[in-house]
């Protein structure tokens, strides 16, 4: 259960008995999580690449696939670090600075990706960092240029509810994300359908085909 607390201007969740949860504490991310980034095997060593370990770069933190794979030898002889499905991944460098994701795969990360592990709810932390992305970029990157660092991320302050309330918040936000994803998929399919219909209506072979147009209208009414 949740309600809008106008005095605090935020939604408040209730426990199973309808009672308020304790007040949120403000903590630094570094106080509730552990951090590490990875590295890149020497690209001159062909034997380090083409293995079975997905190599997650900053542009792939929200992806279930990677462009590159490394070998066990490449992992051992470099600063690349392993991450697990469900870990929070945070992009530190370049155009993707400030992007955050939850790893969909087990793999290894390079130096442009920071792994965040915590006993708090990962989706709650992920949602906060995603919401605050523009503020973080504005605060720590001059004109949006430059790189973030583990020290910067560790010093980000965030509100910490009880773990039970974090889970309720995370589940609530996740359910909205699922609805958005479903609607985006339906929209993509509808756009593809429209494009196909327009090609069939307006290309030379089907132009003016009244029977075809009427048949497609009937399909849309179904």
Automatic annotation (TrEMBL):
Pfam families: Methylase_S
Source domain of life: Bacteria
Keyword DNA-binding: yes
InterPro entries: Restrct_endonuc_typeI_TRD, Restrct_endonuc_typeI_TRD_sf, Type-I_RS_S_subunit
One GO biological process term: DNA restriction-modification system
Keywords associated with the record: Coiled coil, DNA-binding, Restriction system
Domain Type I restriction modification DNA specificity, first and last residues per copy: 23-191
Name of protein: Type I restriction modification DNA specificity domain-containing protein
